[in-house]
Write a structure and sequence with these properties.
The complex is a heterodimer of chains A (about 325) and B (about 325). With about 325 residues, chain A is mostly helical. Chain A is about 65% helix and about 0% strand. Chain A is elongated and about 75 Å long. Chain A starts with about 25 loop residues before the first helix and ends in a 7-residue tail after the last helix. By secondary structure, chain B is mainly α. In chain B, about 80% of the residues lie in helices and about 0% in strands. Classes of the chains: A mainly alpha (about 325), B mainly alpha (about 325).
């Protein structure tokens, strides 16, 4: 148990906050957790995400049919698409291929969340690697990496994702990589600037005085203390990733069959039937909005909890 | 001022240079290579060989790159595979449509967003504040094309209030000079054509403007909240200045700086959003053209578009930076 703790960013305890002021210093993450638990916004976000995650994991149990199955093929004619409650066994109706909309929404949760999580993890990993190299090494490495990041940032992120997906070919993996790579510059820049702002801190000076190597200082002191904003951004990026995945599907990227259970694709193919069966667009659209809302609420509460500057007065 | 502009433009050079290298490598790594990219997927091996020789794809990479750069610098972006016309020409005819749409979207976003954010901050904690916070949260998380669907379904299909797609009623025999349809109508005195073109802009404009609107509301609200309790505002009150002067010259002006930055940063969102919005509303602008290019794997168009956007993006950001000095004299001194 060390007695000298580094002044973690946002770790200072508000003295007038009786619920948190325990008289002893709490750590950054415990403090953040206590704040999150009392923030209704965070709870709503966490409940939404928890529910969708549960649905995604339990999809094989919850969904009446498989994601690509077309159980109502015979009930769909070129002129009629049975809507919600119109035929037994399909509570949310059918789509034009004869797929069960409820099952497809459930399997879609799995597909969309998987794309969101994998692509954000890719972006986070790539961005952190570049950010640590730039912020930790400085000098020409820093300049070179940041110029590269500038180049990536000179193209709007959705267009960057489109270009990468076009290069990688038609597959779900291409979509994950495309969205992930388009997020790298954001993470790299954020981590670098946070690390730079920490570099002059007293605890770094202390570590240097103790004769610690640059690698130890960077990895064990600078990096852990710079992770707050990056984690916040990752949570917010999950929302963007889910939305961008839908947009890429809408633009015809991602491959697979038209009837694949994925929210963005369901929305895309609903366009032609907007006048006859608007629910085919509204249901997957609502799922995307609610999921993105959950991640955004959680991310913003996390930001408030970790950063005293944005905390509500 | 001129020195600042010159310095910023000079900084743009390495970025564009790097981007051109990436793009060059990008086209050469596309499925099937550049010849297939030019000819389409069903090209015969002979045709591929001919194109390879014609365009020099069999020569060393460095030679190829220099040739490509030489053409780019002369404004030669190549020929569209889908239409067979020069890429630059295709952009020129479609760009006004997108500019028109973007302007309407920005007017909507700023015109509604700044007052709403300001009102929310002034009535902090009241109903309008909570309402604007919730609405802006939803605004950020709605996929642009989904919002476009909803607007189209409600206003065009369900209630038939506004036209569902296109830029102008094709029965309207309008004269076009500038390709800005509203402006054309006003210039030629064909006011019905101008009005019709304007009606066609409303739904796509709202769809495109909603995300920037939501962001502007949030930034304005946060910024006004911060400024309205500043010491100089208290001093102004203590001096007995009129409330309207305090709000206009003290609070709003100082609160606008982050808002202007944000508006500039929305450009990327607007361009990405235009691709999606124009597709839903069959609006014949640069965004829809790009979507067709993605579908038809029209690489010269994609390549040209990305360079074009990068330059535009950088120029707009420069204008945004310069506009600071108009709003905030303190920036001018430095």
């Amino acid at each position: 148990m060390s007695t000298i703790l580094p002044p973690a960013p946002g770790g200072s305890v508000a003295p007038n906050d009786p619920a948190i002021d325990t008289g002893r210093g709490t750590g950054l993450w415990k403090d953040a957790y206590l704040r999150l638990r009392r923030n209704p916004q965070a709870i709503v976000g966490a409940v939404i995400i928890g529910l969708f995650l549960l649905v995604a994991i339990l999809a094989p149990i919850l969904a009446p049919y498989g994601g690509d199955e077309l159980p109502g093929r015979t009930a769909v004619t070129p002129t009629t698409i049975p809507g919600p409650g119109e035929i037994d066994g399909f509570p949310l109706g059918l789509d034009r291929f004869g797929g069960d909309v409820l099952s497809k929404l459930i399997w879609g949760a799995r597909a969309s969340l998987l794309i969101g999580v994998v692509s954000t993890a890719l972006g986070l990993a790539g961005g952190m690697l570049l950010g640590v190299l730039a912020g930790g090494l400085g000098g020409w490495v820093d300049s070179a990496i940041m110029r590269f990041v500038d180049i990536l940032l000179s193209v709007p992120s959705l267009l960057l994702a489109v270009s990468i997906a076009a290069m990688l070919g038609q597959s779900t993996y291409a979509i994950m990589i495309a969205i992930g790579v388009s997020q790298i510059p954001i993470f790299a820049r954020l981590l670098r600037s946070t690390m730079l702002s920490q570099r002059g801190a007293d605890y770094i000076l202390a570590a240097q005085t103790l004769g610690l190597s640059r690698r130890t200082i960077t990895m064990s002191h600078l990096l852990p203390n710079s992770m707050g904003p990056v984690i916040v951004q990752a949570t917010l990026s999950l929302a963007t990733a889910v939305i961008d995945a839908a947009a890429l599907a809408f633009l015809g990227l991602g491959g697979g069959l038209p009837q694949t259970a994925e929210w963005g694709r369901m929305l895309t193919y609903a366009q032609a039937e907007l006048g006859v069966a608007p629910q085919l667009a509204f249901l997957p659209g609502a799922c995307i909005v609610i999921t993105a809302l959950g991640f955004t609420l959680l991310g913003e509460s996390l930001r408030e909890a970790l950063d005293p500057k944005t905390r509500k007065k | 001022m001129l020195r600042v502009i010159g310095k910023r433009l000079a900084l743009l050079v390495p970025t564009l240079f790097g981007l051109s290298i990436l793009l060059f490598l990008w086209v050469r790594n596309l499925p099937g290579g550049p010849a297939t990219a030019l000819l389409g997927e069903k090209a015969t091996p002979e045709a591929v060989a001919r194109i390879n020789e014609l365009y020099g794809f069999d020569r060393p990479l460095i030679t190829q790159y220099l040739t490509y750069m030489g053409k780019l610098l002369q404004g030669d972006f190549g020929v569209s595979i889908n239409t067979g016309r020069p890429v630059l020409e295709e952009f020129a005819t479609r760009f006004p449509a997108t500019v028109e749409l973007t302007i309407i979207a920005l007017i909507f976003a700023v015109g509604v967003g700044v007052p709403l954010g300001y009102l929310a901050a002034r009535h902090n904690g009241r109903l309008i504040d909570h309402g604007s916070v919730v609405l802006s949260l939803i605004g950020i998380t709605v996929p642009v094309f989904f919002l476009a669907f909803i607007l189209k379904y409600l206003f065009a299909i369900q209630w038939s209030l506004l036209p569902p797609d296109g830029r102008q009623d094709p029965r309207m025999d309008a004269t076009h000079y500038t390709q800005f349809y509203v402006l054309d109508g006003v210039l030629t005195g064909e006011y019905d054509a101008a009005w019709d073109a304007f009606l066609h802009l409303i739904l796509p404009g709202i769809a495109l403007g909603t995300i920037p609107l939501a962001i502007i509301v949030r930034i304005t609200r946060a910024s006004v909240l911060e400024v309205q309790n500043a010491d100089y505002v208290r001093t102004a009150r203590a001096k007995g200045l009129r409330e309207s002067t305090i709000r206009g010259s003290f609070i709003l002006r100082n609160a606008m700086l982050p808002v202007v930055t944000t508006i500039g940063l929305q450009l990327g969102l607007l361009i990405s959003g235009a691709v999606l919005t124009e597709t839903v509303f069959a609006f014949n602008g640069i965004g829809r053209f790009l979507r067709d290019a993605i579908f038809g794997l029209d690489y010269p168009v994609l390549q040209g578009f990305i360079i074009f956007i990068a330059v535009l993006y950088a120029l707009i950001n420069l204008i945004v930076d310069l506009s600071y000095s108009v709003i905030d004299p303190r920036v001018r001194v430095q």
